[in-house]
Amino acid sequence: MASASWLDIDEDSPFSIDNIPFGVISHNSRLADRQVAVAVGEYAILLQELVNGGALSQCPDIQPHLDCLRQPSLNDFASLGRPLHQTFRLYLRDLLRADTPYPGQLRDNRQLRNRAFFFRSDCANHVPMIIGDYTDFYAGVNHARNVGTLFRGAQNALQPNYMHLPVGYHGRASSIRPSGCPIRRPAGQILPAPEAAAPVHSASRKLDMELEMAAFLCKGNGPDGRPISIAEASSHIFGYVLMNDWSARDIQAWEYVPLGPFNSKNFATTISPWIVLADALEPHRCQSTTQRPVESALLPYLDEKSAPTFHDIPLSVRLEYPIHSEAGSNDKATTTITDTNASHLMYSFPQMLVHHTVGGCEMRVGDLLGSGTISGDTAGSLGSLLEMTDNGKTPLKLDDSVGSQRTFLEDGDEVVMTGKAGSKGAYIGFGDCRGIIVPAY
Amino acid sequence: MASASWLDIDEDSPFSIDNIPFGVISHNSRLADRQVAVAVGEYAILLQELVNGGALSQCPDIQPHLDCLRQPSLNDFASLGRPLHQTFRLYLRDLLRADTPYPGQLRDNRQLRNRAFFFRSDCANHVPMIIGDYTDFYAGVNHARNVGTLFRGAQNALQPNYMHLPVGYHGRASSIRPSGCPIRRPAGQILPAPEAAAPVHSASRKLDMELEMAAFLCKGNGPDGRPISIAEASSHIFGYVLMNDWSARDIQAWEYVPLGPFNSKNFATTISPWIVLADALEPHRCQSTTQRPVESALLPYLDEKSAPTFHDIPLSVRLEYPIHSEAGSNDKATTTITDTNASHLMYSFPQMLVHHTVGGCEMRVGDLLGSGTISGDTAGSLGSLLEMTDNGKTPLKLDDSVGSQRTFLEDGDEVVMTGKAGSKGAYIGFGDCRGIIVPAY
Questions:
Q1: Which chain A residues are closer than 8 Å to B171 by Cβ?
Q2: Which PANTHER family match (chains A, B) (predicted)?
Q3: Whole-number average pLDDT of chain A
Q4: Is B169 on the interface with A (CB under 8 A)?
Q5: Torsion of CA B75, B76, B81, B84, to 10 degrees
């Protein structure tokens, strides 16, 4: 199954040559302008250099589209469509295989390798697409049930619509941040106590994370906004990233009735740096872990007839945080706070997209759809601190020598989300989706 | 007060030379590409032709920025900032005055006038800015109270947060349509009856309009998303349009708890074609018609200290609809269904913008903020059919010979919103915000 490469790639790397995700990078000294690249092992490979160096000459299908590989975003490349993404990705894999059929194009062209290869750790990653609109769904049924139970009790945890449609809301495209961008704690209106008569203006005291997957689109339905059918929905999905939908729970609780979350979400949303193409995840398709109750059969326009359109991707969240020893030194500790799986969703991305467009909503290349928080059904598999701590009532104990615990995030805390499908030597992964909390203005 | 022009301008025109709103047009035979223009009387004046013909030579401030006037959108021009917008608008007014100080630049240059002037009725208008994100507020307090009363009773009409912050939600930038674009009736999930056990997939049976004002931004706060203070908020507002926030009430009722409106709104939102610059409306600033209760004083970050930041703009909605006579002929009838005023808001646009950014949300040039539905407090001044018909229970009688009535919009109905401030010969108006309903797919 795993493909061996002439490159030295750690067998635990999320970026095996079976993956080859796409992103946009810059580099302090070698690359001032943003450019599209792919990630392999510890490298980012600049596609414009492969074009310039002739390494793509044996891939006839990409020849008419080389300009798409010299852009500061992936929108033009995405627009080429999934069959071409797959052809090109497999060609790049062939270039990198130990038994490459095209040794002269890259493996044996040291000058080109020197120009095209960057250490990922030396590069800055940028939001890889121009995002027209960003939508966040609520398809993580365990999360929805846990949150509903917290606020309305177990009997009324899920709203009546939940089993019939993927609930979603429009997010803020300007809020999307690349991994590594510091996250400033938001301020806003919060109720100082549940029974308070009036709100105060304060930095959020309940800053939370939300573990999500998100999909970028490679095909629109405009300008007339034709509904997308369930049969064609997959062809609109370019690829996937991990997403941290930072949420200020106290701002949210005060503002969200009746029109939904607003300032509690729009300050920042972090995505992992590399878009894993939909085709790379095809071998890891699976069923949802959630059984749909017989009495809530889906309407035909949403019915996938048990097609395996979910993904078996183990996901983790770790907290990297400062600890203050008695000697006064500042160290960092790390605790893994979540181990879960991308398959814990009630609705697949094709279903989300179909429902999004059932009324004629126009979608564009580069649009981003978030899954909603992904939680498993056990204590260690929850995707938000809200759930882990029972809305701050039960602190989470962290793994360190000084007895640290958390209800919500503190300044200096860094949340790192990771995920990779597959097995050693052939991982299809995302790289870190990372953000550190800095104090409010 | 009114400025006379050498152009023949109807004294009822919304586009007096005291207005000079900005838009983007194309023309079947004379102008294939979209270009920025201004509206005066029955004309659209193409700015690139004024540049090419030397008509702007006496306006030194615009000289370094002439490229901004040769664009398919107004984003670059907007970015120049309000002082320059004002200088340039007043220069254009001077060019058009009967006693113009620059007669040779335009008035006496017939060749240039022939190239630069188009009849507005021959032109297509386009969405005039590239909209990064679109937000819709709920600042029309009469509307919020009416809708709250319908669904929760008079005692609980307004949520506890309403008097403390401008409630808003993220809309869909891709849904914004220019006036005149047909509006396809959306389909989606609706409950066939209030007590139904499951939804059906159906064309909306409760398609409604919402009368709103909306503001385009000319200044961002990014990329770090600094909160915008109430003192500086006005400098971020480029200008205003009318907006029809089409709403499918049956889809909305089923979907909107807990995360807000989604498919009930994202199929289409129509805006009037010309952006009336903020400075053109300065003479028509006023106080809100709504008294804030003493017990709900605003937090300091929102407090405008009674500055008159609302606008005294009479607004109307008329319905143009087919009537079927006994002889079988199809005629159209017209009924004015709303007369109200833009001052019926609880929060001003500067307050909306300040609240939007209090948590660090990034705003960009071209972002669009809607006010929420504007209703007066009398029967003939309501901004939605939901309110006029008590959610469809009491049909609205229309003014025609065949006794037509409406609960919600029917296919073939055309909604036309208009608004103009000022008085005869000096109106500052918007032109029609128009959309006709076409059948669902």
A1: 170
A2: FUMARYLACETOACETASE
A3: 96
A4: yes
A5: -120
Q: Tens of pLDDT along A97-142?
A: 999 999 999 999 999 999 999 999 999 999 999 999 999 999 999 9
pLDDT for A124 equals 97
How far apart CA B154 and CA B256 sit, in angstroms, is: 21
Tell me the C-alpha distance between B152 and B161, whole Å: 15
Contact of B186 with chain A, judged by CB distance below 8 Å, is answered with: yes
State yes or no: pLDDT of B326 exceeds 90: no
What rounded mean pLDDT belongs to chain B? 96
For an interface test with A, give the residue of B262, B292, B356, B437 to mutate (most A CBs within 10 A).
Answer: B262
pLDDT-derived band of residue A2, with 50, 70 and 90 as boundaries? low
* Residues B145 and B158 sit within 8 Å (Cβ to Cβ): yes
Domains in chain A (CATH in brackets) are 22-126 (2.30.30.230), 134-438 (3.90.850.10)
How far A48 CA sits from the closest chain B CA (Å)?
27
Query: Is the model's pLDDT at B1 over the cut of 60?
Result: no
- pLDDT 10s digits, B132-147: 999 999 999 999 999 9
Q: Are B6 and B96 in contact (CB under 8 A)?
A: yes
The string of pLDDT tens digits covering residues A347-393 is: 999 999 999 999 999 999 999 999 999 999 999 999 999 999 999 99
CB contact under 8 A, A361 and B263: yes
Q: What's the half-sphere exposure (Cβ side, CA atoms, 13 Å) at A143?
A: 27
A301 at interface of B, judged by CB pairs closer than 8 A: yes
- Between the alpha carbon of residue B365 and those of residues A402, B77, B131, B134, B222, the distances in Å are 48, 10, 8, 11, 10
Using a pLDDT cut of 70, give the percent of chain B over it: 99
CA-to-CA separations, A187 to A112, A158, B359, in angstroms, rounded: 49, 30, 5
d(CA A71, CA A37): 10
Binding residues of B: 136, 138, 152, 210, 212, 245, 252, 256, 265, 269, 373
Interface of B with A in 336-365 (CB under 8 A): 355-356, 358-364
Residue A169 at interface with chain B, using a CB cutoff of 8 Å: yes
Cβ-defined contact of A189 to B161 (cutoff 8 Å): yes
Residue A114 has phi, psi (to 5 degrees) of -65, -35
Nearest to B111 by CA among B50, B202, B189, B171: B50
d(CA A328, CA B352): 45
Radius of gyration of chain B (CA): 22
Q: Is the pLDDT of residue B130 over 50?
A: yes
Give per-residue pLDDT as tens, A316-331. 999 999 997 766 667 8
Is B308 at the interface with chain A, CB within 8 A? Answer: no
Residue-wise pLDDT for B30-58, tens only, equals 999 999 999 999 999 999 999 999 999 99
Å between A303 CA and nearest CA of chain B = 13
Residue B27 designated active-site: no
Residue A139, chain B, CB below 8 Å: the answer is: no
* Three-class DSSP category at A60: helix
Percent pLDDT > 90 in chain A is 92
Give the annotated binding-site residues of B for Mg(2+).
245, 265, 269
CA atoms within 13 A on the CB side of B209: 33
